[in-house]
Task: structure prediction
Amino acid sequence: MAVKIIAFLLTAIVNAAAGVAIFFIMLLVMNGYSESDATWGLGVYIILALSVTLTMGAGAAFMVNLLVKKEYSAVVSALVAVLLFSIVGIGLKVVCSGIGVGIAEIVRNH
Result:
């Protein structure tokens, strides 16, 4: 049980750190947008990024459970799950940032 919690927390921390870094990059990217237009894109990104963080953490915990049941060691299971779901989460956050900028662009043009 402790290994699943550790995997969840490590994955969530890595994903949250990546989310904050991508958020600041989005602020730079949306430099030319007005505040009211950029707010919509940033709001959508924050909601999507939080859901990705929680989903990736839960996925890592679930994968640890599966690997331990297949008689892999707890440490190896946690390392594999954290690494895999951190990489996938960072990729999804980049996609979420594109969606956020797209929403800001749609709001700006309408």
